[in-house]
Write a structure and sequence with these properties.
Blueprint: E1 6-12, E2 14-17, E3 24-30, E4 39-41, H1 50-53, E5 58-61, E6 71-80, E7 85-91, H2 98-108, E8 113-125, E9 137-149, H3 156-165, H4 169-180, H5 189-205, E10 238-240, E11 243-244, H6 275-278, H7 283-289, H8 299-315, H9 318-321, H10 327-332, H11 344-349
Parallel strand pairs: 4-9, 5-9
Antiparallel strand pairs: 1-8, 2-3, 3-7, 5-6, 6-7, 8-9, 10-11
Length: 350
């Protein structure tokens, strides 16, 4: 029965990363099982139009053509297999598109859905029964127009917003899995704010890398503080199985980075490691090297120091003003001795 209408179908996808090819995902985007609408697309129905589709094989986010950031990647291969309509997608990751990065992360973790858009050229009512159920309609000839990844919210706030506007049921199920699997941590309000800020940064700019650079998390493969439970496995960003929500790559459960957020209840009071274990310099030794001494000043002495600053401010040029020291700097770096070299006239002004 000819139809000619455009139809969209969403499916929970079977996905896995392509070994040795970063950014590539193999996905089964449609099968001939009865879907949630009670309909079936025969795999033979796709065969006539796959070559035409591959001439412009764009991978979009939720069929959105109005925003360049919604182009997540492209399909480099697509064919009918014994599993269904199966393809390999190349995601445009690490290019500044947070949505592409998030889509790839979901697919890599097996928590993604895809939507096929097609023109219905022919169908029959009913069809072959499956497990005792007969489909309402079976599509026998379709023209594939597009394959999109269904948008899944990256945090609870986005999930609430998407629900208020209407969210794809498959995407909602995946989101519930993601957030339902999360541990319920007893974090402080400050930590909760930190967690939200990390999520927003990753949503906007993509995941941190492991380096010590300005895009890095300062990740260490094995935490020097593990005897205090200060490890990735106790952090709110830990997903399990080597996955962190905000740092890219394979993560060791017993590693640690500068972005850790661990509830106080999870931390133990184990012995603090020394500089040999942490790789960080000994603070006391470093202070001695720099001849830094703690000085206790009276209120009168503090007042005199502030007068010196006022005097220097009056004499400073614009360039010199950039080099001004605070009282704490004066004390910390032991430059009080410099005031002894002031002229007698300047000392009288103090």
């Amino acid at each position: 029965m000819p139809n000619g209408n455009k139809v969209y179908k969403s499916y929970r996808a079977e996905t896995k990363a392509v070994e040795g090819q970063e950014g590539y995902i193999k996905a089964v985007v449609s099968t001939d099982a009865i879907d949630r609408d009670g309909e079936v697309i025969l795999m033979s129905a796709w065969g006539k139009t796959l070559n035409e589709f591959l001439k412009h094989p764009v991978l979009l986010s939720s069929h959105d053509y109005n925003d360049l950031t919604k182009q997540l990647g492209e399909w480099v291969d697509l064919k009918v297999t014994d599993k269904g309509l199966e393809g390999i997608a190349k995601y445009y990751i690490n290019k500044g598109n947070a949505e592409a990065d998030w889509g790839y992360e979901l697919a890599k973790r097996g928590k993604s859905a895809y939507s096929v858009g097609f023109m219905s050229n022919d169908y029959v009512e009913g069809g072959t029964s499956q497990d005792g159920y007969e489909p309402k309609r079976t599509y026998t000839d379709v023209e594939l127009l597009e394959i999109s990844q269904v948008s899944v919210p990256s945090n609870r706030d986005a999930l609430v917003e998407m629900r208020s506007k209407g969210i794809d049921k498959v995407a909602e199920e995946i989101a519930d899995e993601i957030f339902g699997d999360e541990k319920q941590y007893e974090t402080s309000p400050r930590q909760q704010a930190q967690q939200l800020s990390h999520e927003k940064i990753v949503e906007r700019f993509g995941q941190y890398d492991k380096s010590t650079g300005n895009e890095g998390s300062h990740y260490m493969e094995e935490s020097a503080f593990k005897n205090q439970n200060m490890i990735c496995g106790k952090c709110v960003h830990w997903e399990g199985e080597g996955v962190c929500t905000i740092v890219e790559g394979s993560i060791n459960e017993y590693g640690l980075c500068k972005l850790w957020i661990i509830p106080e209840s999870e931390l133990s009071t184990g012995e603090t490691p020394g500089p040999e274990e942490t790789g960080y310099p000994d603070e006391k030794q470093e202070m001695e090297k720099k001849h830094i001494h703690a000085v206790m000043l009276t209120e009168e002495e503090k007042s005199k120091i502030m007068k010196v600053f006022d005097m220097l401010d009056d004499k400073a040029t614009p360039v010199e003003e950039e080099k001004k020291y605070s009282p704490d700097d004066v004390i910390a770096f032991g430059i009080l001795d410099a005031f002894a070299n002031l002229s007698n006239q300047e000392k009288k002004e103090v």
